[in-house]
Amino acid sequence: MSGTLATAAAPEAAAGREHTAPAPVWPAAVLSLVLTALAAVAGLAALASLHGLIGHTGAVAGTLLVLLGAVMLLPVLFPLNALRSGRRRGALLATGDLTGARAAASVGREQAHTGLGYALAVIIAAMLLAFATTNDGAISKTFLRGKFIEEAWRNVTKAFLVNVEVAVGAQVCVLVVGLLIAVMRLLPGPAGRPLRLIAILYVDVFRAIPSIIVLYLVGFGLSLAQVPVVKDLSPMWLAIMALTLTYSGYVAEVYRAGIESIHPSQWSAARSLGLSYGMTLRTVIIPQAVRRIVPPLLNDFVGLQKDTALIGVMGVTDAFTQARLTASNVFNLSPVIVVAALFVVITIPQARFVDRLLAREQNRTGRSA
Amino acid sequence: MSFLEVRDVHKSYGDTEVLKGVSLEVARHEVVCLIGASGSGKSTLLRCINALEPISAGDIRVDGDVVSGRGVDVNRLRRNVGMVFQSYNLFPHMTVLRNITVAPTKVGGIGRDEAEQRALGLLDRVGMKDRALSYPDALSGGQQQRVAIVRALASDPQVLLLDEITAALDPELVGDVLAIVRELAQDGLTMLLATHEMGFAREVASQVCFLHQGRILERGTPAQVFEDPQQDRTRQFLARVLTAGRL
Which residue of A65, A76, A248, A297 has the smallest Cβ count within 10 Å? Predict the structure, then answer.
């Protein structure tokens, strides 16, 4: 095949004509074929190892294994299609149909590349599967033992409510405190200077200290020092306080970036209407800024949620603490996987929610960008 | 007795002096047009009058009261002096109606219902009543500028500053906006406008001022300035405008 194509392409290239023949498809197709075949072999080997681990295979599991095997073989179809397109390209070239040949070659190359993409994905999946089944399944036995997961999930989920409460409490506080600090940092004139400096200092300090240290210091230090009011707070409130201290620094910077991103002409317009500085900030600038900072805000909120797994250091029994207790009892990490899964489960809906908010905002204001 | 007085105003940004001693008087019911090339200081002068920019020297009086410098209640001043901008500057997160009522309700002490009634009446005058509940981004440039004019009028200003309000508009939308300004001029509203629309300036202005490099080089009635300019700079500017087909 290659010989005829080369001779067909060469004279036109030599003539320097605009209508050059398309490059041959077969190199990409062959590479794709080799890799998809390799991926299929790796995938089947991993499945075989999984089959050996399960031992006696029921009807359902058996069917599933066969289906998985079929899926791992499927990418081979792409390079086969590519080779067919390559032949078509040759045939069209022979009849002098350059446009058709170019189209066929393009289709062929795309098929070959698609095969490559799927082959790499199958190889990654096979590696993960091999990792999970290695050592006689030691990995999956350590992390994914159904029995322990079943035993632990009720307690862990109940303890997870503490994480959720602390997260929501801290998030509400952070929204308020962060905005206050951001506004403080933006106060104008010499009168605002001392407050600006305090706000800068706050952000510098609390963004620098690891949240686990703030939790530790607030959790034990404040009650140790018998600080009035605070010493009588429950550990959960102390946790909310500590996380608020840390994350207000981050969120203040997000607010500030949002406020500063509003075009100065909005200030001009509002002030020219007689609105005062504070009124402009409140009714014109902050409402627009808040819409812009929702995505980065969610980023910080997810970070905050994850840091609730640290509140164990101050003696609050959260999901992670509970899971570790169970895990050390049964000498297996499956309960901890439950906590990890719970965090994933509560985070994904928030991301989708923000997507929807943004989409709705775009529809409402009729903005296309 | 002039209503708006600008006396020997200087304004610098850092080392660049943008206004080099501008004096100007606008009597009640007068329409004064500022013409001149880009960068001649027209917009800066308007922004200084509305106290959006502090001035470096000189003073500005509205109705006999000094409104420049320290100790001036800028928010009260701005309620008497409305301003419309080249790029409309509507608030994108508010409906057209809210854009117009926000200042009267927040600082004018007018109830929301009354403010909305008045806003709808004004919108009707400019042919935008049916878009009262739209958001600015859904409107054309000409429509947005008409709303911006209404927004400035809603505070009942005694003088209106218009900063090249048709410069950002597509040519076919300019007419609608100018028609409104013409109508306001006929109603006797005091206006000071920076404009590139020479034909319009000639038609509505009672006084035309030609600014060049931060100074008013020539002033007079439209007939004097456009038909018999005394200064070379004015003649050159008008010739350039003429070749660009704007007169």
Answer: A65
State CA A50 to chain mean position distance: 29
Residue with tokens 């004139």: A189
Mutate to test the interface with A, among B49, B67, B106 (most CBs of A within 10 A): B106
Residue B71: DSSP 8-state? T
**Model-level pTM?**
0.78
- CB-nearest to A366 from B47, B78, B137 is B137
CA A66 to chain centre: 31
CA distances to A347, B83, B200 from B131, rounded to whole Å, are 40, 22, 27
Q: What is the pLDDT of residues A158-209, one digit of tens each?
A: 999 999 999 999 999 999 999 999 999 999 889 999 999 999 999 999 999 9
Cα angle at B240 between B239 and B246, to 5 degrees?
95
Burial of B168 (0-12, 13-18, 19+ CB in 10 A): middle
Q: Determine how many CB atoms are found less than 10 A away from the CB of residue A64.
A: 13
d(CA B233, CA B227): 14
Please determine, for the modelled complex, whether the ipTM score is greater than 0.85: yes
What is the average pLDDT score of chain B?
90
Helices and strands (DSSP H and E) totals, chain B: 9, 10
Size of interface A-B (CB pairs under 8 A): 70
Instruction: Name the residue range of residue B24's domain.
Output: 4-84+159-243
**Tokens 């809603």 label which residue?**
B154
Q: How far apart are the first and last CA of chain A?
A: 49
Dihedral of the CA atoms A219, A224, A229, A230 (nearest 10)? -10
Distance CA B80, CA B67 (A): 11
B75 falls within a domain = yes
> What CATH number does the domain containing B191 carry?
3.40.50.300
The percent of residues above 70 in pLDDT, for chain A, comes to 93
Chain A residue numbers with beta carbons less than 8 Å from the beta carbon of B79 are 274
How many angstroms from the chain centroid is the CA of residue B152? 10
Which domains, and CATH codes, for chain A?
Answer: 22-141 (no CATH), 148-361 (1.10.3720.10)
- Number of domains observed in the structure of chain B: 1
**What phi and psi, each to the nearest 5 degrees, are found at residue B66?**
-70, 130
Chain centre distance of CA A12: 50
Would you call A274 an interface residue with chain B, using a CB distance cutoff of 8 Å? yes
**Cα–Cα distance for residue pair A226/A231, rounded to 1 Å:** 6
